[in-house]
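REVIEWER CHECKLIST
Item 1: Sequence provided? yes
Item 2: Single chain? yes
Item 3: Sequence as submitted:
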Amino acid sequence: MMIDWKEEVKEYKKQYGDDGDITEYIDSLLPVYYGDIMRTFNDMTVEIEEHHLGQPIWRVMIECIYNEYYESFMEEWYED
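Item 4: Structure as written out by the authors:
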């Protein structure tokens, strides 16, 4: 799923105004179902890192997706 970050930031600002709830907002955008998590993760260029060893793969994928979403959101936040 491709997210239009410009639109997401605009929607966030309309709903919340400040940056106090950004982490929760981004969390609400994360895929929930395993198939969606896999598809989203596979569309990204992420490498598994040493600190991921021993964690369940779904947790690693969600962490990577969250980090990517957060970075994209914040880039647009500061552009706006």
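Item 5: Key structural point noted by reviewer: The chain has a mean pLDDT of 90.
Item 6: Recommendation: ____
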